Amino acid sequence: MRVLIDTNVVLDFLQEREPFVGNAARLFERIDAGEVEGFIAATTITNIYYIVRRVAGRAVAQDAITQVLSDLTICTVDLAVLEQALELNFEDFEDAVQYACAVVYGVDAIVTRDASGFINAEIPVVLPEAIEPINGTE
After folding, report:
1. N or C: which end of the chain has fewer CB within 10 A?
2. pTM
3. Predicted local distance difference test score (pLDDT) of residue 120
């Protein structure tokens, strides 16, 4: 299964935000096990760095980015993606960019805790805990 992971879920995992860290950690465990292929928009990297650096400092932010780069496929954000995002007319442009990346990269679902940002999405939008196990295993 190929999933685009919203910024909030990545931050839940990296910052161990309760009560969400458990579900986010299980998703990343499945990515590490090769059961799920995780994607994020390139713009998510800069957002993560900014937020983590502000809360925990530069060194922690750099470690977080290193971890994300090793675990996830980074979706290119180019002119075509940005133009597609604008055409979507989403309330939140960040969500529109992520959705456009999801379309371009042909993911099976978008994993988020804020489904309201993806109203009328043609790609399934699911909570981290809703990702189904492969081959019936947990």
Report:
1. C
2. 0.90
3. 82
